[in-house]
Amino acid sequence: xxxxxxxxxxxxxxxxxxxxxxxxxxxxxxxxxxxxxxxxxxxxxxxxxxxxxxxxxxxxxxxxxxxxxxxxxxxxxxxxxxxxxxxxxxxxxxxxxxxxxxxxxxxxxxxxxxxxxxxxxxxxxxxxxxxxxxxxxxxxxxxxxxxxxxxxxxxxxxxxxxxxxxxxxxxxxxxxxxxxxxxxxxxxxxxxxxxxxxxxxxxxxxxxxxxxxxxxxxxxxxxxxxxxxxxxxxxxxxxxxxxxxxxxxxxxxxxxxxxxxxxxxxxxxxxxxxxxxxxxxxxxxxxxxxx
Length: 291
Ligand SMILES: [Mn+2]
Fold this sequence. Notes:
Layout: E1 24-29, H1 44-52, E2 71-73, H2 83-97, E3 103-108, H3 114-124, E4 129-133, H4 153-160, E5 164-169, H5 174-182, E6 186-189, H6 190-195, H7 200-206, E7 211-216, H8 238-251, E8 254-260, H9 269-287
Helix pairs in contact: 1-9, 2-3, 3-4, 8-9
The structure holds manganese (II) ion.
C-alpha cells in the first residue's frame, strides 16, 4: 500500500479513508514540466484537496453519499527529473498502485501526465479506450521540441490505442485539423457539440469498454473554471459537463479518470472548488453504476 497523504479528499474524516477497503484512490501528480504558457498546475492538487473539505458529502443527483464507498488520498507521486524521466517514473509508480479493485482518480498536474497514467492502466485493461474532454486537440507530434508536451498528449495516447473520442475541442492547428480529416479521428468540436452536427453519443457507444476519462479543465467555460494555463473562451457550462459525465459513466465501464490543467491561484478559490466538486461528481456517477 502506498503512503497516505496528510491531506485527504473531503477532509480529514477517517470514515472516508480506510486504505484497506476504499474503492477510490485519489492520486495527486503535481507535475508541470509539460506546460507551454501559464504555470501553477504543480500546486493544483493541494488546492483541490483543501477545497474538497467544503464539499457536501451528499449528492442530490445520485441520492447518495458516494464517500461511503471509501476514498483514500495517496501521497503525491514523485515528479523529479526531465520530461522523459518523469513520464517513465509516473508510469512505473502508477503500475505499482493500480489494481482492478480500486478506481484511480488523478489530480494533475499538466495534461502530459495522462499519457503514462493511461499506459499503466492499459496494462490492467488491454482494451482500454479514452475519452478526452478538452478545449485543445493536443494532437501535435511534438511541441516546443518535446514529444512529452501537454500539447502532444493525445498524439501519445493515440499511439497506445485507436479508440479515442475527443469532445469540446475549439483550438487546433491546420495540421491537426488535416490529421483529424485524413484519419477520420473521432473529434467532437464545441461547434459540433453545440450545433448538433456531431453525434457524440453514437461515438461514445462505439468505443470498447473499459474506458479512461481524461478531463482538461480548460474544456469548461471561464465562468466555471477560470484558472488554467491555456484558457479558451466558449467552454462547457457546468450543466453541459454534467450531461456528458452522466452519459459517459452510465453507458460505459469507466475504470479511471484524471482532471488536469487547473492552475492554482491565490485570488481564485472558485476554480479549485469546482474541480473538487467535478471529481466528487465523477466518483458519485461511477458509484451509482454498481449500487
Ligand atoms: Mn487543453
